[in-house]
Each structure stands twice: as structure tokens, then as C-alpha cells.
Amino acid sequence: MRSGTRSRTRARCPGVALAALAALITLPLAHAPAVAATQAACNPADAAQGRPATASSAENSGTSASAAFDGATSTRWSSQFSDPQWIQVDLGATEDLCSIDLNWETAYGKDFQLQASADGQNWTTLKTVTGATGGTTSYDVSGSGRYVRMYGTARGTGYGYSLWEMAVHTTATGTTGPVQGGGDLGPNVIVVDPSTPNLQQKFDDVFQQQESAQFGTGRYQFLLKPGTYNGINAQIGFYTSISGLGPNPDDTQINGDVTVDAGWFNGNATQNFWRSAENLAITPSSGTDRWAVAQAAPFRRIHVKGGLNLAPSGYGWASGGYIADSKIDGTVGPYSQQQWYTRDSSVGGWTNGVWNMTFSGVQGAPATNFDSGPYTTLDTTPVSREKPYLYLDGNDYKVFVPGKRTNARGVSWPNTPGTSLSLDQFYVVKPGATAATINAALAQGLNLLFTPGIYHLDQTINVTRPDTVVLGLGLATLVPDGGIDAMHVADVDGVRLAGFLIDAGTVNSDTLLRIGTPGSTADHSADPTTMQDVFVRIGGAGPGLATNSVVVNSNNVLIDHTWLWRADHGSGVGWDTNRADYGLTVNGNDVLATGLFVEHFNKYDVYWSGERGRTIFFQNEKAYDAPNAAAITHDGVVGYAAYKVADSVTSHEAWGLGSYCNYTADPSIVQADGFETPVTSGIKMHDLLVISLGGNGQYAHVVNGTGAPTSGTSTVPSKVTSFP
After folding, report:
1. What is the predicted pLDDT for the residue at 177?
2. What is the pLDDT of residue 409?
3. Can you tell me the distance from the alpha carbon of 487 to that of 462, in angstroms, rounded to the nearest whole number?
């Protein structure tokens, strides 16, 4: 994110020891957990899907080993026409194995062994099969290993061995029975009510610790029980969230402020990331609340009984942001904010803005004036669904899961459609939980509530059940270790992913978050999967590597506010040190993105190959650290477009798109275009801009050779209001 001349953050006194802070934390009453359904003997999730694979040979380049583990029955591995041959997969960690599925193509194995190994060198035979006849067969096995292979000794045809898919199933390790749902909310959730002693001190102590802890390990969630809180100023720092526990925002009233400012960074708000406010009402002490944030700082389901200032005190640089399902009675003043997206809300007024202010379904929004100003306004949002949230029903915690809205305008509350889930339907994940237990809970049919913390994963989290909720509190952070993917979501209806951060590990992951299996074709329009306030970071907190950040294969997915960020500052930052080629890849059809922030990837930031995709608001910066033009030249073109619609696509539409270049490693780079699309009547792009930040690199054009080049150091947008 653009921050101008960055200075080192000032050291802050922690104020109180962590033990003293812990003493101030008020935990909710523990509820007697309900016993979950009896755990299946074998996890139905495929532990091998998407994992690294090798084989003794491949018939040709289109039948590589990985094709047997991609979840698609339209791709296959096939070997050369000889015996023996083998194919193996690396599960990423030693697992207890219970079943292996083989889905043979016509060229099948007649005699083979299913084997496991701890090191990929020394193999133990789990099952010997003779006289097989192909087709799809599941084999029960017993043993353990990190590597699993099919070792073929006799072919059933004159061709090679050919598998559409090979799946490996594991038993949950480290558990002694069904995973329990419900329980308390863990050590980093601070639950308060208006009578809580030293309430202001609680906010101040966490803020003092988190104010400048941009890459720190603290994670906190404040939960405010319904009632009226007088004279409170809740300053919100990094990895801190504040939420009301009422069914509706007005149930939790703050006569005071919920504040984000930028004193820690000398009045520059462009690095005020990773924090949130949700589901409460604010009557600001001065009449106007201040929420000066950058990316990954959602402001949801808030009633501001006054005005809202989105700039830091002193009106320094600011680069945000996102508002949804909120009512601001007074005027919203973005002032120095470079860009902002507001969805399904109500405002008393909106004054100015810098480059790209986009609105959909917002009562009181200004009219579109992109020719001469920053505004792009859509009267409604085509499809939306609000984020799930925790609330109190009497003394019982529940999670409310809002329903889908079409052509929405204005807030969803006080009568938000949806359903409530009791806490005992959730595995409440606390620091120290293992990925095996998390997957066992999912296999039982539990949802997931991640409490604030950092969770290192030694196996991919597999979400396979329709309508599963995966909800994070306090920016809960998932770190995949050993090169695994962090999370896979099956091609099913209605999964809700919300409120967590995926931080790439030091060994390259292929895909940090994958929604749907490759080749997914099901129609999910009635009950789409949603991804909301889910953020991805590669580097910054240390070296991180991932080829793909998010890949969407399912149809009809709603991406509602995400920031996918290859770090440009912090530790572990360099062109190859935190390499990440692609930000968002969309292969599914009818996918809608509302509030899309994707920055600094080595190749395409967004690559969209699904049909009928739509994006409302896009913010991007190209990678600062491209060493030279040659490093980003492909197919004779200098620079990968920030937003690329694949050449095969015939229908796509987008509104309010901005891409900025800040090529600090080589300011002489001239990027060909910010955006690339096919030129066809079904492609409609509205209100696009490109900007050179201070002359560090330039754009030759806006989109497909259209639009004036940027030039000089004046940081003035070059715009195209309609393309083609």
C-alpha cells in the first residue's frame, strides 16, 4: 500500500504485562457443550487432493501425476506402456491411513500394491491387489505415512496405467472421541457489559499493545453485551475487533467513540490494516466519529448517530476502505482517502474523495461523476449476503447467518432475514488446536468458530459439507506449514467463510484458499458460497511463498470484501523472497466480487476465466519491487495487467476499477495497460483509472491500448469511463 516515505515505527511501552492484561479479560460463561455426532471411522475428506504428486513416467505432458489429485474426473494421469509403474502423493505430514480410492480410466491396473512411506524412499505395503478389473474402487487400509503410492506390476490393457483420480482418506489423530461443540470463547476474547469495572482501561491496555504491532502476534476481540456505554473511546489497533452482541446494532449503544487514527505512523493512515468494527451504534462525542483505515479494516452493520470522518487527524495520506450494511445519519467525509467502497447502506451525505469512490445499494450516495470526479454509483447491489456474526440470545451465544438479498438497497436490519445457529453446533477453535482436530470436527458436521490467535496447520483444512460456517474472531490467522494449502472448500452450496487471515508459510503453497474443485459445474445460485473479510498475506511478518492466493472454481460465489496482499514492506520481502504469482484466479461462472482489493503480485493480480463474472470496485497496486521491465515482460507485453479477463471469456462486467504503479526498484518501467479484456459486445467495463504514484513507473494506456498514458510525477489519474 502506498505510504510515501516510510519511517520505522516508534517503539511503544507495553504499559502492562500480558499477565496483567489477561487479568482484565472477562470470559463468557462456559456453556455445557453438546455431544457432536459420532465421528466416522474414516474422514470422508480427500487428504491427497491438491497435494504434490510424482510418478515413474507420464504418457505425455497433458497426463502428469498432479492430474490424478486435482479433484477433477476430466483430467488424468497416464504412464508409459510398460511395467512396473507408480504414482505417489505427498500428504505434507505423517497421517493415519484408513482408505484409498482409485478411479481408473480404461487403461487400468490389474495387479498393484498400495504403499505408504515416511520418507518417500522406504515403502510399506498396505494392500496387495491382484486381478482387478478397473472402474472405481475403495480399498480399506491400515497404516501410516506421509507418502502414499500405487505401485503397478501388471497392466490390464496394452496401454499404460491411467487414473482419473486417486483419493486418500485418513483417521483423525490426537483425538479420543467426538469433538465437542460449544464451550467458552478462549483467552483472547474480552466480553464486557456497561457495568464492567475499568472498562476504558481494558480498551486502552489492548490498544497500547496493538497500536503499532503491524506484524505482531497479538489477536483480540472485544464483545460488548447489549446496553448503553457512556463516555467510552475504544481505540482500535492492529488485529483488534470490536462487536456488539445484540441481534441488531442499536441494541449496543456507545455514547462515545470507536476510533482509528494514525498517530503511531506520524499521521499517515495508509498502513492501518487488519482491524474491524461490527454490529453496534455510536453517538460520537464530538458529533463525528473517526475511522481512518486502509485495507482489511471492515466497518459493518454500524449505526453512526452523527458523522463519520475517514481521514486521520491532520488529513495525512489514507488508503481504504470498506463499509457495508451501515447507517450513518450525518455526512461521511473521506477527505484524503484515495479509494473507498460502500455497499447496501444509508448515508446522510458524502463529501469529496480522491480517486475512486464506489457505491452500490447506498441510500444518499452521490451520483456518478467519474468523468470529472471520483464517484461511481449503482442503485442496487445485484446479489449480497451479510456476514455471519456472533450474538447473545439471553445468556446463550448464537451465530446469526444472514440470508441472500437480490437487488438490495439500504441496510438489512432490524429484520435481517436468515437463520440462527447455536454455539454447540460449532467447534470453538482455540490457540493450540491441531488441523487434525479441526478436520475431525468438520467431518462430524460441526461449523468452525476460530477464536483470536495464530494457528499453524500441518494439513489442509477441508470444508466438504454444504452450508458450513467458518467464522473468525479478532483476525484469527491460519498459517500453512510445509507447503500445504491452507483451506479447500468442496463444490457445495452455501459455505460461509468470514473474518480470518491466511498468512503464507515459508515453504511454497500451491493455493492458499481454493473454493470448489477444478472443473466444478454445479449451479449454486440459490445458495451461493460467500467469502467475506477473508484476507491473504504473503510476506511482511516473515518470508512467505504461494503460487496462488485464492482460486475460485465453484459457480455463483460471492466475494464480499477481501484484501489479497503480497507484502511490499515488513520482513521477508523481496521479488523472490515472498514470491506469489497470482492473487485471485476465478474459473467459476457467475461469480460476483464486491469490494476487491488485490496488490503487488509477481504476475496477474486478478485473472478471470469464468463466464458472466462481475466486479463492483477494484483497488490495485502493481508490485513495487519488479527489478526491471524484462522481469515482467510476457508474450511481448511489458507488465502483467492488474485485472485480466481471459481471452476465452464472452461475458463480463465491472465498475469502479483502479490500478496504481509504484515501481520503486526501476522507475523507468512503462507498463502496457492496467486492464486487459477480450473485445466483444458481452464485455462491459465502466469507470477505469490508472495512476503513476509520483512518477515511479508509468502506464502506456488504461485498457487494451485505450486511454491516455500517465506521465510525469503529478499523480493524476488517466481514465476510461466505458470500454469497449
Report:
1. 63
2. 98
3. 6
What pLDDT score was predicted for residue 298?
A: 98
pLDDT of the residue at 208: 98
A 10 A CB-CB count for 74 gives 10
- The secondary structure of residue 238, as a DSSP letter, is T
Q: Which CATH architecture has domain 42-171?
A: Sandwich (2.60)
Rounded Cα distance between 558 and 91, Å, is 30
Any idea what the Cα angle at residue 20 is, between residues 17 and 25, rounded to 5°?
Answer: 130
Per DSSP bridges, beta strands 275-283 and 252-259 are parallel
Segments of 80-214 assigned E as strands: 85-104, 109-117, 124-129, 136-155, 162-171, 189-192
- Are 343 and 617 in contact by the 8 Å Cβ rule? The answer is no
Q: Can you give the pLDDT at residue 172?
A: 61
CA distances from 117 to 96, 130, 169, 390, 435 (A): 11, 21, 15, 44, 21
β-pair type (220-224, 109-117): unpaired
CA dihedral of 677, 683, 684, 690, whole degrees rounded to 10: 0
In this prediction, residue 79 carries a pLDDT of 96
DSSP letter string, 1-67: ---SS--PPPP----S-HHHHHHH--PPPPPPPPPPPPPPSS--S-TTTT--EEES--SSTTS-GGG
pLDDT score at 142: 87
Helix (H) or strand (E) holding 511: strand 509-515
Question: Is there a contact between 250 and 272 (Cβ–Cβ < 8 Å)?
Answer: no
The predicted pLDDT at position 193 comes to 98
Backbone angles phi, psi at 444, to 5 degrees: -75, -15
The CA distance from 189 to 82, in Å, is 60
User: Which amino acid is residue 159, in one-letter code?
Assistant: Y
CB environment 22-48: b (16+ within 10 A), e (fewer):
eebbeebeebebeebeebeebbebbbb
CB 603 within 8 A of CB 622: no
| Angle, vertex CA 656, rays to CA 653 and CA 662, nearest 5 | 120
Q: What cell was used for 545? A: 511463498
Check residue 8 and give its pLDDT: 28
Residues of the chain with pLDDT under 70: 1-40, 172-177
Beta-strand runs (E) in 600-677: 606-608, 613-621, 633-634, 637-638, 643-645, 652-661, 670-676
Burial class (CB in 10 A: 0-12, 13-18, 19+), 580: buried
Residue 224 backbone phi and psi in degrees, to 5:
-105, 115
Q: Which three cell numbers stand for residue 283?
A: 453517538
List residues bridging with 463 in a β-sheet. Answer: 489
Question: β-pairing, 396-402 with 389-393?
Answer: antiparallel
Q: Name every residue whose Cβ is closer than 8 Å to that of residue 592 and which is 6 or more positions away in sequence.
A: 382, 383, 557, 558, 559, 613, 614, 615, 616
Could you tell me the residue ranges of all domains in the chain? Answer: 42-171, 648-723
In the prediction, which pLDDT does 119 show? 80
Closest-CA residue to 75 (of 492, 646, 514, 518): 518
Q: Which residues are catalytic, by number? A: 621
Residue 358: partners with Cβ closer than 8 Å, 6 or more residues away: 339, 340, 341, 342, 375, 376, 377, 616, 617, 655, 656, 687
Task: Count, in order, helices (H) and strands (E) of the chain.
Answer: 3, 49
- Which pLDDT score is estimated for 36? 34
pLDDT (0 to 100) of residue 16: 31
